[in-house]
Amino acid sequence: MEGPEGQGGGVSHEHDNEYYDDPALYRVMYADWTADLPPLLERMRAAGGPVLEVCCGNGRVLIPALESGIDADGLDLSPAMLADLESRLAAKGLRTGVHRGDMRAFSLPRRYAMVVVAFNSFLHNLTQADQLATLSCCRAHLAPGGRLLMCVFHPDVQKLIHYAGPEQLMKDLANVDGPGRVRLFDACVDDRIEQVREVKRRVEFVDEAGRVVREERLGFKLRYVFKPELELLLRAAGFGRWTIEPFVAGERGGGTFVAGRAPQEGDILLWTAWQD
Q1: Residue 90 is assigned to a structural domain of this protein
Q2: Pseudo-torsion of CA 190, 262, 257, 50, nearest 10°?
Q3: By residue range, what is the domain housing residue 172?
Q4: Which residue in 132, 129, 134, 131 sits closest to 101, CA to CA?
Q5: Lowest-pLDDT range of 10-19, 40-49, 193-202, 227-236
Q6: N or C: which end of the chain has fewer CB within 10 A?
Q7: 196-206 vs 181-191, strand pairing mode
Q8: 142: CB partners within 8 A, 6+ apart
Q9: Confidence label for 147 from pLDDT (cuts 50, 70 and 90)
Q10: Could you tell me which of 51, 92, 91, 93 has the C-alpha nearest to residue 75?
Q11: Could you tell me if residue 74 is inside a domain?
Q12: Is residue 174 located within the same domain as residue 59?
């Protein structure tokens, strides 16, 4: 619903946990996160067959994959994100299978050499039952010998404590859709028993004079998962083997996932699990 007037004559909008209802806002918030794309696309190209991206959103990974010649389909639950994806695909002259579905319970006719769940999307499963259902559903859509590729952060207890409580500035970045900057403030509440973090986010759009001209409010929840727990979930879903590669940042915002280094708290981890 529409909120009160913001600073500088801007308008504040309140979203009731409709985190993915504004694709343009989502794109602005995460325009700075591109470092995972080269290593993800490298693995998707090497899959040896078609790829399905689960929780594809409005195409942050899927569009570059298609542009590089990868045979990839997309699945997402949000009608708004999928509509934006379809529009962006049409504008680029790209065509592929785009499906609306819940990652916990979808059914597609195609079987894939790789299923990808990128950028912490798996953490929107807020119970172990949901996590197990998603893993099982993804495995059911893999061709024999196919792989699940899943990118999630490993919780850092000290960081969880540090960022819990009152609102804190999380990002200050250039506005990719216009002049000025965008600032993200999060207020986080944790249920450490259920491992669920609820985030209330405020997004400020600041003009070149430093005035707040627009403000958005939205919220979301994530269930973080520790390494031994996720290993047990993979085994329960029928996966027999997997590897874990932590993301190591490189120069100028790049980086890659590195095999052989033990995971550490706070790492972004790439899990690869085989269907066999």
Answers
A1: yes
A2: -90
A3: 2-20+156-223
A4: 134
A5: 10-19
A6: N
A7: antiparallel
A8: 111, 112, 113, 114, 115, 148, 275
A9: very high
A10: 51
A11: yes
A12: no
